[in-house]
Amino acid sequence: MVRIVWLVATAVGLWLGLTAPRVSPVSPPIPVAQAQSPPSVPAP
Amino acid sequence: VTATPTSARAAWRLGGSDALGALAIGAVVVATWPLLAAARPLELLPLIAHISGMLAGYGVLILLLFVARTPSLELDIGADRLARWHVEAARWVLILVGVHAGAAIAAWAQARRINLARSVWEILFMPWLPAATLATLLMLAVATASIRAARRRIRHERWHALHLLMYLAVALAFGHQLAGPDLVHHRWLQVAWALGYAYVFAAVLRHRLIAPLTQATRHRMRVSEVHVEGDGVVSIVVEGQDLDKLRAESGQFFRWRFLTPDHWWNAHPFSLSAPPSPTHLRLTVKCLGDGTAHLQRLPVGTWVIAEGPYGAMTSSRRTRRNVLLVAGGVGITPMRALFETLPVARGEDVLLLYRAREEADILFREELDTIAARRGVRVIYLLGRDRAILSTAALRRNIRDLVDRDVFMCGPPGLTAAVREALLKAGVPSKQLHEERFSS
Question: Is the minimum CB–CB distance between A7 and chain B shorter than 8 Å?
Answer without folding.
Answer: no
